[in-house]
Backbone:
């Protein structure tokens, strides 16, 4: 092997890093990607492990897909001869040698380009890549993306060949101090191209984005905004809901934006009991989009939550994005139906999608099933609150999430943090994030999963106070609460009292405890299903006494993988607080929650 002269390699690596920072980020997202003309690039991709993160222009130029042309050529990798891996999917559960791998893996997909008619434009769209991506097409860098849970796309019009296109993606799941999430999480650090990859075709002028919502102060009016890409000034845009015999036309302004305010006296509002959706169509020039949209209004009134003018109690459950039966990251519509089906079976009308944006199928299936959703960014535990780049990542990823899910009736809460300490840097950071979120979407409620603290009453910690100042900017005060697991035993619940220093609705965003499914014994024996059931019974009685509580979210619906959970023969790298095991078996506490929620209907 020819050793790189140290000075050259050092310069090369520095250049790499600089160009990474300077390189263009992804382009404006195409809304409702599932409805577009497309070819799926899912399937088997080849891959090389870049153990030392040498990068795209480093020691081994993976991004260039170099091949040995003559016998004397020196090439020290070969995608053609490399192992393959499924996309979508994490690498940890596909390849035993990659179970714990944290670093960069280079993926390659070769594909032909469909013959296109003149003017048609082509985009590569990634539903997500965990945690960051550098994307190359036929050796040319298209750009990069930071964040493992939100979509991004690049225009590739004119860059594709009829056959043999080489799409190479450098994927890194390395944890980094200035990223979100930070360095420690209670979930598995999956890496890979974990969601769909699509080659999308749109007309020269196309419908880039649109928002279809109830008007801010009138349930019999809908407000529609359509954004065209490459529009001519005054271009006509039409909006239709056939079921309401509603058809309107508007002209795009000089920015390609058309606005409608439409009277809809017969509109039926969406709610969990009757998740009514309408087939909406938007057309302009050569482009036409259709999708199912529900209309509803979520508000607070003092300490109450109000959906379509009626008070609502959130019968919730928390979920990680894992299909525990197949193993690894969930990504498909079938996965969404499995997970949300379990929530429905437990009589839930609400699901907290923890602790990061889940795949788009979740909100679409929740719209159909009538399940309200809490969505969040992984501003979780230790974040580099002082770092402007970190704040930039948070704003970028919230912009991507809200752009993707803003037309989903099911989504009612954007959450900006989980269990983060009250300090000036964190409060400034979260105020910035909150105003960014509200500037994009002020139709949904803002929350954060806060910590409480126990005020001493004598020698015991029985009086809980929630007075985190960040709650002043939130619509819902949420708190994670582990009485009977991290604080005392379940019989201590009856002594607890709560003081919520805000006249706002309260949601218990987490509570619960662990059990190994099938492990039975006395209720005082930790990890038995009896202990978990006892804990739930006592917590539910305790919460009944806290009048501001307007929703409960047991942590968690399904056992999930976590490196923090090492107790042999009980955890074995699984967090056992699920009400359902990783094989889909329901624990005794599942049925307690099912009964309790039945009584709350
Ligand atoms: C925390 C945290 C969760 C974690 C849970 C637990 O509150 O928000 O991500 O998994 O508690 O300890 O199981």
Residues:
């Amino acid at each position: 092997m020819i050793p790189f002269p140290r000075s050259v390699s050092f310069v090369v690596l520095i250049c790499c890093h600089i160009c990474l920072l300077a390189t263009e980020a992804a382009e404006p997202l195409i809304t409702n990607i599932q409805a577009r003309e497309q070819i799926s690039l899912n399937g088997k991709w080849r891959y090389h492990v870049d153990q030392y993160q040498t990068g795209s222009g480093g020691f081994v130029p993976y991004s260039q897909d170099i091949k040995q042309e003559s016998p004397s050529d020196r090439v020290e990798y070969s995608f053609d001869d490399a192992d393959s891996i499924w996309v979508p999917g994490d690498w940890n559960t596909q390849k035993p040698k990659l179970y714990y791998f944290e670093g960069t893996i280079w993926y390659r997909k070769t594909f032909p380009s469909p013959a296109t008619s003149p003017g048609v434009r082509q985009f590569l769209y990634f539903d997500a890549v965990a945690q960051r991506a550098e994307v190359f097409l036929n050796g040319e860098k298209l750009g990069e993306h930071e964040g493992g849970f939100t979509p991004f796309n690049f225009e590739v019009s004119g860059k594709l060949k009829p056959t043999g296109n080489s799409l190479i993606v450098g994927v890194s799941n390395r944890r980094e101090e200035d990223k979100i999430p930070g360095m420690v999480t209670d979930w598995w650090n999956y890496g890979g191209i974990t969601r769909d990859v699509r080659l999308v075709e749109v007309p020269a002028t196309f419908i880039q984005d649109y928002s279809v919502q109830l008007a801010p102060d009138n349930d019999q009016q809908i407000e529609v905004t359509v954004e065209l890409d490459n529009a001519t000034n005054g271009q006509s845009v039409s909006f239709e809901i056939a079921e309401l015999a509603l058809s309107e036309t508007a002209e795009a302004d000089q920015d390609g934006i058309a606005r409608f305010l439409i009277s809809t006296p017969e509109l039926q509002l969406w709610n969990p009991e009757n998740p009514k959706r309408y087939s909406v169509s938007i057309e302009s020039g050569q482009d036409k989009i259709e999708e199912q949209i529900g209309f509803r209004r979520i508000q607070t009134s003092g300490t109450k939550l109000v959906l379509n003018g009626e008070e609502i109690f959130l019968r919730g459950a928390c979920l990680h994005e894992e299909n525990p039966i197949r193993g690894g990251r969930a990504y498909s519509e079938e996965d969404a139906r499995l997970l949300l089906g379990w929530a429905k079976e437990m009589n839930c009308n609400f699901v907290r999608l923890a602790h990061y944006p889940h795949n788009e199928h979740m909100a679409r299936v929740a719209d159909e099933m009538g399940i309200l959703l809490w969505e969040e960014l992984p501003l979780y535990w230790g974040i580099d609150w002082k770092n402007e780049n970190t704040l930039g990542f948070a704003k970028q990823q919230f912009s991507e999430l809200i752009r993707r899910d803003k037309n989903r009736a099911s989504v009612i809460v954007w959450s900006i943090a989980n269990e983060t300490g009250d300090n000036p840097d964190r409060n400034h950071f979260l105020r910035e994030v909150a105003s960014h979120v509200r500037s994009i979407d002020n139709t949904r409620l803002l929350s954060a999963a806060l910590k409480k603290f126990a005020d001493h009453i004598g020698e015991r910690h029985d009086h809980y106070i929630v007075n985190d100042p960040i709650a002043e900017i939130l619509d819902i005060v949420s708190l994670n609460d582990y009485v009977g697991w991290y604080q005392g035993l379940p019989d201590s619940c009856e002594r607890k009292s709560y003081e919520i220093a805000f006249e706002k609705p309260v949601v218990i965003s987490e509570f619960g405890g662990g059990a190994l499914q099938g492990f039975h014994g006395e209720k005082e024996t930790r990890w038995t299903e009896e202990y978990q059931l006892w804990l739930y019974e006592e917590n539910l009685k305790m919460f009944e006494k806290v009048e501001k509580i307007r929703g409960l979210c047991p942590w968690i619906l399904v056992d999930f993988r976590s490196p923090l959970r090492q107790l042999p023969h009980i955890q074995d790298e699984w967090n056992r607080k699920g009400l359902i095991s990783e094989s889909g078996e329901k624990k005794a506490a599942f049925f307690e929650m099912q009964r309790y929620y039945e009584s709350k209907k």
Q: What stands out?
A: The chain has two domains: 31-202, 300-599.
